[in-house]
Design a protein that fits this description.
Layout lengths: L4 E16 L12 E7 L2 E5 L10 E12 L4 E7 L7 E8 L9 E7 L12 E11 L3 H23 L3 E11 L12 E7 L2 E4 L10 E10 L6 E8 L7 E9 L8 E7 L6 E10 L4 E4 L8 H10 L13 E11 L12 E7 L2 E4 L10 E10 L5 E8 L7 E9 L7 E8 L6 E14 L1 H7 L17 H29 L4 H16 L5 H16 L2 H12 L6 H4 L7 H5 L2 H28 L4 H20 L2 H18 L8 H8 L3 H7 L10 H7 L3
Antiparallel strand pairs: 1-4, 1-8, 2-3, 2-5, 5-6, 7-8, 9-12, 9-16, 10-11, 10-13, 13-14, 15-16, 17-21, 18-21, 18-25, 19-20, 19-22, 22-23, 24-25
Helix pairs in contact: 4-10, 6-11
Length: about 700
């Protein structure tokens, strides 16, 4: 038997074989398990992820060097969730003191949840070999350091993707009916490794037209297997499975668009899509001494790549953003020890990277640089801070959202962390230095095509607060129109003789000399007037604070209580109606606010783009007879389908407005001021726990 601690060194070889009957954590009745090994609170090994399997086979090995056997090896299993926090699946301890040396010992670890010890979570099979290792301290130190570096490098490489899979989901054909009316309400789920995408639902059809475009990341050089499943949406009960198919990406040529008509298994119909494999965009994780934009030669190459002369090459590659995550101060204490184990997650649309964890620290320093490719200059960079938890999913500590167009290059700036809804401050400040380089022409062209949708978003819930808020937003937009109507009516009623006379003369002159080009010209003049004379910028912060009186949404969590589940199941249909009304109110209010914010120069880039478009429209309408413009528009509309049968329809005006932030987004993206005199100790005294 081994002694607990001695001057000798030990080598522990671990073979992670398989898991049996692991816990279900995904909706499909499966999990995506991986295993972490920890010693003294530090992660020393992490296995690969086995997707959609409750009896995974890993067959992985690792060797650990240690000088004390009294500390047990802590083994944790998690379910990987792309874009979300991984779910805890159980843990166990391997006590090293009881191991016999010089022979391989099979070990079975029963997984438990410390919060619910009676729950069965399955077990792991391992084989361990413990042998003495007589070596100098320096050798052990070097070995441990190399092991830590290998783990850090593995963590870094596991996040970086090697290519992009661009998919245009076109249509379905000859799907089988799943509803009593002989039709279906089909939608499609895609899965590539850990990534998932769900299409919109097309109601009452067996030949749905989805016309959606999205990108997935390619992590494996060999390509990987794309899984496609088609489902029928059912309200109030589990959705019906229609069919599935798989596509081996390694069989497809790169840099070429493939037109694929994929049959579903068991002759359940077809799915038609266009798929293109392209080389990886510019994405990296580096130390501060090796950042791309700090190398003068590489910076010149990047500036050349996004210069005006390259405006029409690779239109999808709009620019590059480099984020230096320096440090955080005064974070919330999430552990019982009064400390936290913080790490950062950076998200730009569907691109997601994260830092390493700094253990037992409320003022962590990461000093890492992350590089993303910019596909839309109107994207918002989200930086979230989490506390790594030993037995559960990571705890949320704070978050900031930074629109790329608000960034000042090369400025080290402190951002006050906000809560999950980005509606108010939480404890702590994070320091970032961000650089954005982009091509203005590509950014402008990208503005009038559909925006990229996030793959992973929270399911909408019925919220009395949100319903009331969206109703008030629509009401405000309507009240603005009513106030303008009352103003015009006051001119008719001659409430002010001077105003009515001026209005009457202006009305006669405009109507007598009206030409169609005057419509965009009037909007152009309104934008110019607000640029020079509007005071909305100065009062924006005050008006936003007054407009939205945010409340805590803890009440929404009550829906998760088990005692309400039976009742809520009976209200699915009512919930869907309420969510639809809530979403419709939000959409109507958002478009009204976006039109106002375009005119108010909330985002100068978009207002200048509107001025350019309106100026062009004014000139065209002035120089070219209307009949020719209408004829050109009609010919384009009638021949669009003939010229490109698989074209994804879009509305340029709505796509433009989708880039303009609503008042809610303006509030969420508003930076909170950092108190220069604040410190972690002051936070502790002034903030309630």
């Amino acid at each position: 038997m081994a002694a607990s601690c001695s001057s000798g060194m030990y080598k522990l070889k671990i073979e992670l074989k398989r898991g049996h009957n692991l816990a279900i954590r995904d909706r499909g009745g499966t999990s995506d398990p991986y295993v972490k090994f920890k010693l003294s609170g530090k992660e020393v090994f992490r296995s690969k992820t086995i997707h959609k399997n409750l009896n995974p086979v890993w067959d992985e090995e690792t060797t650990l060097i240690m000088d004390c056997l009294s500390e047990p090896l802590y083994v944790k299993v998690f379910d990987y969730d792309f874009g979300l926090q991984d779910d805890f699946m159980g843990s166990a301890y391997l006590y090293l003191e009881s191991l016999e040396q010089h022979r391989m010992i099979p070990v079975t670890l029963e997984l438990k949840d410390p919060q619910h010890p009676e729950q069965y979570l399955g077990f792991l099979e391992l084989a361990v070999t413990l042998t003495p290792k007589d070596s100098p301290i320096e050798e052990r130190r070097d070995s441990t350091q190399q092991q830590s570096m290998r783990l850090s490098e593995l963590h870094r490489k596991s996040q970086l993707w090697r290519g992009i899979v661009s998919i245009a989901l076109i249509e379905g054909r000859s799907l089988i009916p799943m509803d009593p009316n002989g039709l279906s309400d089909p939608y499609v789920k895609f899965r590539l490794g850990p990534q998932k995408y769900r299409s919109k639902t097309v109601l009452k059809t067996l030949s749905p037209q989805w016309r959606e475009q999205f990108d997935l990341h390619l992590y494996e050089e060999s390509g990987g297997m794309l899984e496609i499943t088609v489902w029928d949406k059912d309200t109030g009960r589990r959705d019906d499975f229609i069919g599935r198919c798989q596509l081996d990406l390694s069989t497809l040529a790169k840099e070429h668009t493939h037109h694929l008509e994929l049959p579903l298994e068991e002759s359940r119909g077809y799915v038609v899509l266009l798929l293109t494999l392209t080389a990886s965009a510019h994405v990296s994780i580096a130390d501060l001494s090796m950042t791309p934009l700090d190398d003068p030669h590489e910076r010149r190459e990047i500036l050349k790549r996004y210069s005006v002369l390259k405006s029409f090459s690779n239109l999808k590659d709009v620019g590059i953003v480099q984020v230096k995550v320096m440090r955080a101060e005064g974070l919330m204490a999430a552990d019982v020890t009064g400390k936290s184990d913080p790490f950062c997650v950076l998200e730009l649309n569907n691109d997601r990277l994260q830092t390493h964890t700094v253990y037992k620290n409320l003022n962590p320093e990461w000093n890492k640089a992350f590089t993303f490719n910019v596909k839309d200059i109107h994207s918002v960079l989200e930086v979230s801070v989490f506390d790594e938890d030993r037995d559960r999913s990571a705890d949320f500590l704070g978050k900031v959202a930074i629109p790329l167009l608000h960034i000042r290059n090369g400025e080290l700036k402190g951002y006050v962390l906000k809560n999950k809804g980005l509606t108010g401050p939480t404890k702590g400040t994070i320091y970032l230095e961000v650089d954005v380089i982009y091509n203005t022409v590509k950014a402008a062209l990208k503005t009038v095509v559909p925006a990229e949708q996030k793959y992973i978003e929270e399911e909408p819930k019925v919220s009395k607060h949100l319903l009331q808020q969206n109703f008030n937003r629509v009401k405000r937009c309507i009240m603005v129109l009513i106030s303008y109507g009352m103003y015009i009516n006051s001119c008719f009623e001659w409430e002010s003789a001077q105003r009515s006379i001026i209005s009457f003369v202006l009305f006669v002159v405009v109507v007598w000399n009206f030409e169609l080009y005057m419509l965009p010209l009037a909007l152009l003049l309104l934008l110019v007037w607000n640029y020079f004379f509007s005071s909305s910028k100065d009062t924006a912060d005050m008006s936003m604070e007054a407009m939205f009186e945010w409340e805590d949404e803890e009440e929404d969590k009550d829906d998760k209580d088990s005692e309400h589940k039976g009742f809520m199941n009976k209200l699915y249909a009512i919930q869907d109606v309420c969510i639809s009304v809530q979403s419709a109110l939000d959409e109507v209010a958002s478009y009204g606010e976006r039109m106002k914010n375009t005119v108010n120069w909330t985002v100068p880039f978009l207002s200048w783009l509107a001025i350019t478009a309106l100026s062009l429209a004014t000139v065209l309408l002035y120089l070219i007879p209307l009949r020719y413009l209408v004829l050109a528009w009609g010919v384009n509309k009638f021949t669009k389908k003939l010229r490109d049968p698989y074209r994804i329809d879009n509305n340029e005006l709505l796509d433009f407005l989708s880039r303009v932030p609503s008042d809610v987004q303006v509030m969420q993206h508003h930076e909170l001021k950092v108190d220069p005199g604040s410190s972690p100790n002051k936070w502790k005294r002034s903030q309630p726990s």
